[in-house]
Amino acid sequence: MSVATATRTPQAGARRRVPDSVLGLAGLAGVAVLFELVPRVGLVDERYLPPASVTATALAELVSDAAFWQALTSTLLGWALGLAIATVAGVVLGIVIGSVPALRAATNSTIEFLRPIPSVALIPLAVLLFGADLRSTLILVVYASFWQVLVQVLYGVADVDPVARDTARSYRFSALSQVRTVIWPTALPYVMTGFRLAAAVALILEITGELIIGSPGLGNAIATAQSSGAVATMYALVVVTGLLGVGVNVLVRRTERRVLRWHPSVRREVAA
Amino acid sequence: MTAIAWGRKLAIAAGLPAVLVGIWWLATAGSTSVYWPPLSTVLETFAPTWLEGRLTSDVLPSLLRLAAGYALALALGTALGTVIGSWPTVRALTEPALEFFRAIPPPVLVPIFILFAGIGDGMKILVIMVGSVWPILLNTVEGVRSIDEVLRDTARCYRFRRRTRLVQLVLRGASPRIVTGARQALSIAIILMVISEMFAATNGLGFSIVQFQRSFAIPQMWSGIILLGLIGVALSLIFRACEARVLAWYQGQRAAQR
C-alpha cells in the first residue's frame, strides 16, 4: 500500500494527504453556504427557504424554549418505548417460532404477508381507538419496527450450527439453557442488525405519527410551525430531527460494536 | 405423490392465514361495536367503495405518483451514487452531509414541500423522490466502492470503453447493493405516498381513508386499510420478481460458492 502511494504522481499524493474528516467538514460547510446563498441570491423565495443563518437563529431560540425540550423528550420517550416493546416481542417470538420447525413453516406465509403491510395504514384505526394520544403513535412504531427485529431473529435462529444444537440436545440441556448457550450467541449479531434497522424505522414512524396524528413531539411541533407560518422554526426543527437521526445511528452502531466485541468475525451484514 | 406434496405445502402456507381470518370473522360476526364492524360488512363494502369510481379517481393517482416518485428516486440515486462512489475525494467530501440528509425522517419533508409546491401531484412526487432516494444513493455508493479490484483492473487492461465499463462492470457489480437500497426505498416510498395524502390532498388512497375515518364511515375505512395492506403485499411480490430477474447471475454465483 505504501509502495503504491509512493509511486503515485505528486498531485495524487498531495490530494490524499487531506484527511477525510477535513473533507467531510468542508462538505458540510459547503452545504451550509449553499443553503445561505440560494435564498439570498433569490434562486428560491426566502419565505419558503430561509437562509441558513436565519434557521440557525431560530434553532438558537428553540434551544432556550421549554416547549421544545418537552417535545424532544416526548419524541425520544415514544421512540425508546416503542423500540423496546418491538425488540423484546421480536426476540421472544423469533426464538420461539425459529426453534420449532413446525411453527416456522406454519407462520412463514403469514409473516411474509403481514410484514409488507405499511404501518401507516393503521393510522386511522389508531386515531379512532386512542385519539391524538401517545398510544396511537406507539402502535405505529411497534408495528413497523417489530417485523425488522423478528425477521432478523428468524434468520439468526436458522443459522445455528446443527452439530452444536444436536450436542446440546444429546446432553439434555434444558430448553432454557439451549436458548442461552446455543441459540442466543448465534442469533445475537442478527438481533443487533434487526435492532439497528428497527431503531431507524421507529424514529421515522414516531415522527410520522406525531406529524399526522398530532400526538405530542417534534413532528407535531413541525406541523404547528408549518401551519402558523413560522418557516424558520420549522426548518430548525427539521434540522433537529436530522441530528436526532444521526445521533440514533451513532448510538446504535456503538452499542452494536460493544455488544458484539466478543464476536470472532466481522460478520457481513445481512441485507434486509 | 406430487399432488399430495403440493396439497401439504398449500395447507401449511394457507392454514394459519385461514385460521386468523376465521377468528376475525367469528369474533366480529355479531359485533355491534362501531369501531369493529363485522368482517362480512367490511368485505361487502369493499367492492362498492373501491371498484366503482374510486379506482380511477383515488387508487390510480396514488399509484402513479408512487411510481413516478420511485422511478425518479431510482434514476437519481443510482446516477449520483455512481458518481460519488467512483471518486474517493467526492465521497469523503459529501459523506457526512449525505449521512445527515439520510437521517432526517422523510415524513418531515411533507410540510416543507407543501411550501414550495402546494398540495398537488408535484409535491407528492417530489416528497416520494427525495424521501426514498437516500437508501438507494448510499447503497449505490457502497456497491460501487466495493467492486472487486481485480475486475476493475481487468476491465482497464482490456480497454473497455467507458460505456461498457459503466454498464458491465460498475452498475452490474453494484447491483446487489442497489437492489438492497431499492427495497428499503420502496417501503419508505409507500409510507410517503400515504402520508403526503393524509397530510394534505384532494384525492388519493390516504386521503380517502382519512375522510372515511373522519366521517365515521368505519366499514369503508377498514376496507381502505385492507386495500392498503394488499397493495403493500402486491408491491413487495412485484419487487421480488424483479429482483430475481435482475440478480439472477448473482444468486447463481452465490449458490455455486456454497
Automatic annotation (TrEMBL), chain A:
PANTHER family: ABC TRANSPORTER PERMEASE PROTEIN MJ0413-RELATED, ALKANE SULFONATE ABC TRANSPORTER-RELATED, MEMBRANE SUBUNIT. Belongs to the binding-protein-dependent transport system permease family. SUPFAM superfamilies: MetI-like. It is found in: Cell membrane. It comes from Haloechinothrix aidingensis. Residues 72-252 form the ABC transmembrane type-1 domain. Keywords: Cell membrane, Membrane, Transmembrane, Transmembrane helix, Transport. The lineage of its organism: Bacteria, Bacillati, Actinomycetota, Actinomycetes, Pseudonocardiales. Its main location: membrane. PROSITE patterns: ABC_TM1. InterPro entries: MetI-like, MetI-like_sf. This is ABC transporter permease.
UniProtKB/TrEMBL annotation, chain B:
The keyword Transport applies. The chain crosses the membrane at residues 67-88, 100-119, 125-144, 185-209, 221-239. Belongs to the binding-protein-dependent transport system permease family. It comes from the Bacteria. This is ABC transporter permease subunit. Residues 59-239 form the ABC transmembrane type-1 domain. The keyword Transmembrane helix applies. Coiled coil: none annotated. It is found in: Cell membrane. Gene3D superfamilies: MetI-like. Keywords: Cell membrane, Membrane, Transmembrane, Transmembrane helix, Transport. It is a multi-pass membrane protein. It holds the Pfam family BPD_transp_1. One of its GO terms (cellular component) is plasma membrane. GO terms for biological process: transmembrane transport.
